[in-house]
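Lab notebook, bench 4. Continuing the backlog of folding jobs that were queued last week. Each job is logged with the same field layout so the records can be merged later without manual cleanup. Today's entry covers NAD(P)-dependent dehydrogenase (Short-subunit alcohol dehydrogenase family), a 256-residue chain. Filled in by technician R.K.

JOB TYPE: sequence-to-structure
TARGET: NAD(P)-dependent dehydrogenase (Short-subunit alcohol dehydrogenase family)
LENGTH: 256
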Amino acid sequence: MVTGALGLLGKKHCEALAAAGAHVVVADLDGESAGTFADRLGEQHLGIGLDVTDKNSVQEAAQQVTARFGRIDVLVNNAAINDRFEHPAMAKELSAFENYPLDAFRLSIDVNITGVFLCSQVIGTLMAQQGSGSIINIASTYGMVGPDQNIYRNDAGEQTFYKSAAYPITKGAVLNFTRFLAAYWGHRGVRVNTLSPGGVEHQQQEFFIRNYSAKTLLGRMATASDYQGALVFLASEASTYMTGANLVVDGGWTAI
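JOB STATUS: finished
OUTPUT FIELD FOLLOWS
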């Protein structure tokens, strides 16, 4: 089961798991589109609507999945939000810490932390009852290090945007929540790990791609498919003795 499955990485997660032989549950707010994407993966997959911030929605989704497949072996807590401002011209002003909207901060907490908590609570409990399961929490390099605001400066040296406090705070929380769950459910056969990806190149401005790439040891941003192998590894028995860990796949961003 992949939450936030219709996002850029969510689709790649689903494709990787399907290719590895899993019956994939494509879970996203837009249930109709989730069903369409699941059908594209194959008839053995399922698309469902899911609001990760609503416990009733999570419980209903779990019931729907277990009614279809009998069990849930893997949960990928991928659903998350990143800053998007309605008026791009206001992005610099609103993203500055001094002006960052409280409502935006609370929404990040609700989706990026509470959503992971609820899905893990409901579905992880089922895993503990069956005596096995793998929970994969998707965090970020910004859960481990502070944002380098310089990469958001254009060629003229102008700050176009600030990475807000909300994303690093919530992704940092995901890392320690992973450790909590791993310690709590280890004796019940439930493994819990984090996958921390780096930035993905996807229609950003050229100066940003160049600035970001210069900070990685591999000299580039990730492609959307660069995390598929790591995800399948954490989901499968190839990582059977791994829990409470943070698998960093960032092109060397955090290595120096």
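OBSERVATION: The CA atoms of residues 119 and 208 lie 34 Å apart.
SIGNED: R.K.
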